[in-house]
Design brief:
18 strands; BirA Bifunctional Protein, domain 2; single chain; 2 domains; 8-stranded mixed β-sheet; alpha+beta
Length: about 475
C-alpha cells in the first residue's frame, strides 16, 4: 500500500532528524551535469578514463537501484539526462554504503562525487566516493512509473510525467525552440515585441466568451483578455508600425483536444501591408520554423503526410461553396439556412455564420496541406477591412492545415465610422442569441479617430503549431498544466 510506503519514508526522515542530519539540505554544488559528462567522456576508452585524475560532482533523482550486497549500482537523472553510479564498500566506505541502503529510496534526490570508469558493457559510470541525501521523497513514484501511460496521472501530475517519460520533456524543449524561432524571424524583419494588458475593461479583439473578474480598488469588472488585438492596434496609432506579442489569452469555452481555456497566441500587426502580404509572411514563417525544427517541409502528422512546400494554395470561401452547394443556395437566405439546418449548424439567422460554418463542415476538415481560405463574410469579421470589389466580404483569411485553423489574419479596418457601425451590428447579433460577439469599445474607436495607418494583422495559435511539429494529437500534450475536470 502507498500509505505504508509513505509511513516508512516519514520514519526515515524522523530517524535522520534524530541523528542531526537534515533530510533537505541545500549545501551541495554540482560541478557538472550528466549531459556534460556524457558528451565529454561518453566516447572515452577505459584507459583514457583511468588516466583522468578529476573527480566530478553531480546531483539528481535516483531512478534505479540494484543492490549486490557489498556494492550498489544506481541511476540518477538531472535536467539534462541520466548517468549510472557505482557505490562500493571498499571505495566509499561501509558507513556510506550502509546509509544508502537504509535511507535512500527511488525518487530521492542525491549528490554524488567520484571518478569515471566504464563497465564491461561500456556504460559510463561514476565510481562514487561520496554520496549525500539532498531531498528525501515522501511519496514513492507510482507503480510502473517508468513509461507512465495513465493519461489522467500524466496531465494532473505533470511532474511525474516528466520524470517517467523523457520524450515529454523533449516536447516542451521543442516548444520553447519554436517560440524562439518565431521571435528570431520577426525581430529580423523589424517587428517590435511588446506586452499589452491581460486585464481588459471590455472583452474585445475576438468573438469569444470571456472570463470575468473584479478589481476591488477600482470598483470595476474586468475581463481576462480573449485577444491582444485592440491594444496592439492602438500601438499602430501611436506610431509603432510593426509590433507583435506572444502571450496567453483566455476564452471561457469547452475543453477538447484542440481547446484549453488558456492558450498561447502570437499576434502581429504591420502598417502599410495587406492580408495578401501576410499570407506570404505566414507561409515564410511556418516554413522557416518547420525546416529548422524538423529539417524538412514534408513530415507525418498522426498518420497523415503534410507537405509545407510553397507556394501554398489559396481558396475563396464563396467560390468553393458555390461549387459545392450551388450559386442558388448561396444567394437565397432561406435555402442557405435550410442547408445549414440539415448539417446541424446553429446559425441563429446570421448569414455569415451559416456560410462559414457550412464551409468548415463541408470542406474545412478535408483540407490537408496548408491552404489560405479567404473572403470571409462581413458580419462575422467586424474588425476586418471590406473587400473593395465585394463590400459584403472582407479581406480576411484563415490558414488551414489538416482540417484545423492555425492562423487568422486580415487587412485591418481603420475607418472609425465603419468600425462603430460594425460594433453596433455585433450587438444586434447578441440580441439574436449569439454569445460570442465583439462588444462596443468606445476607447478603441477614439484611437481610430486619431488615425490608424492602413495595416494588416495576424494571429497564430502557438499550441497548435507545436502540436503539428511534435506529432501529438492533443493540446494537453504541449501545455505543462492543462485544465482538467475536477477529480
Amino acid at each position: 500500500m502507498e500509505s505504508d510506503l509513505v509511513d516508512q519514508r516519514k520514519k526515515k526522515i524522523d530517524e535522520l532528524t534524530e541523528r542531526g542530519i537534515d533530510p533537505f539540505p541545500n549545501d551541495f554544488k554540482p560541478s557538472h551535469s550528466t549531459a556534460q559528462l556524457n558528451s565529454a567522456h561518453g566516447d572515452s576508452s577505459p584507459e583514457q578514463l583511468d588516466e583522468l585524475k578529476d573527480e566530478f560532482a553531480l546531483a539528481g533523482r535516483v531512478v534505479a537501484i540494484r543492490d549486490f550486497g557489498k556494492s550498489i549500482f544506481l541511476h540518477i537523472t538531472d535536467g539534462s539526462g541520466r548517468i549510472q553510479g557505482y557505490l562500493r564498500k571498499d571505495v566509499a566506505g561501509p558507513e556510506q554504503l550502509d546509509f544508502f541502503k537504509k535511507i535512500i529510496d527511488i525518487g530521492d534526490i542525491v549528490g554524488i562525487k567520484g571518478s569515471l570508469f566504464k563497465t564491461k558493457t561500456g556504460e559510463l559510470t561514476v565510481n562514487i566516493k561520496f554520496v549525500k541525501l539532498l531531498t528525501k521523497s515522501i511519496r514513492p513514484l507510482p507503480e510502473k512509473w517508468h513509461g507512465l501511460k495513465d493519461v489522467e496521472i500524466r496531465f494532473r501530475q505533470r511532474y511525474l510525467d516528466l520524470i517517467a517519460n523523457p520524450e515529454v520533456k523533449e516536447t516542451f524543449i521543442r516548444r520553447q525552440k519554436i517560440i524562439k524561432l518565431i521571435r528570431h524571424f520577426l525581430d529580423n524583419r523589424d517587428f517590435f515585441e511588446v506586452e499589452t494588458p491581460i486585464l481588459h475593461p471590455i472583452a474585445g479583439g475576438a468573438a469569444a466568451k470571456p472570463f470575468k473578474t473584479y478589481h476591488n480598488a477600482l470598483d470595476m469588472e474586468l475581463y481576462l483578455r480573449v485577444a491582444p488585438e485592440l491594444y496592439l492596434k492602438r500601438l499602430l496609432v501611436g506610431g509603432f508600425e510593426r509590433v507583435y506579442e506572444i502571450g496567453r489569452s483566455f476564452r471561457n469555452e469547452g475543453l477538447s483536444n484542440q481547446h484549453n481555456p488558456e492558450f498561447t497566441i502570437m499576434e502581429l500587426y504591420q502598417a502599410y501591408a495587406t492580408y495578401e502580404d501576410l499570407m506570404s509572411l505566414i507561409e515564410e514563417l511556418f516554413c522557416y520554423v518547420a525546416e529548422t525544427i524538423l529539417g524538412t517541409l514534408e513530415f507525418e502528422y498522426q498518420g497523415t503526410l503534410i507537405n509545407l512546400n510553397p507556394p501554398w494554395e489559396r481558396v475563396s470561401i464563396m467560390a468553393s461553396l458555390e461549387e459545392i452547394v450551388g450559386a442558388e443556395v448561396l444567394h437565397s437566405e432561406d435555402m442557405l439556412f435550410k442547408k445549414a439546418d440539415s448539417l446541424g449548424i446553429n446559425h441563429l439567422g446570421i448569414r455569415g455564420k451559416a456560410l462559414v460554418e457550412i464551409f468548415e463542415s463541408v470542406l474545412g476538415d478535408k483540407i490537408v496541406n496548408p491552404t489560405f481560405v479567404f473572403g470571409f463574410p462581413l458580419d462575422v469579421s467586424p474588425l476586418a477591412r471590406r473587400n473593395s470589389e465585394n463590400p459584403e466580404l472582407t479581406d480576411r483569411f484563415e490558414l488551414f492545415i489538416n482540417g484545423r485553423e492555425y492562423a487568422n489574419a486580415f487587412s485591418e479596418l481603420n475607418d472609425p465610422v465603419d468600425q462603430r457601425a460594425r460594433f453596433m451590428a455585433q450587438l444586434e447579433m447578441k440580441a439574436k442569441g449569439e454569445e460570442e460577439v465583439h462588444e462596443m469599445d468606445e476607447d478603441f474607436i477614439t484611437a481610430l479617430e486619431h488615425g490608424m495607418p492602413p495595416a494588416a494583422g495576424a494571429g497564430v495559435g502557438i499550441d497548435r503549431l507545436v502540436m503539428l511539429l511534435s506529432n501529438v494529437p492533443s493540446i494537453r500534450e504541449v501545455l505543462f498544466f492543462p485544465h482538467l475536470r475536477p477529480e
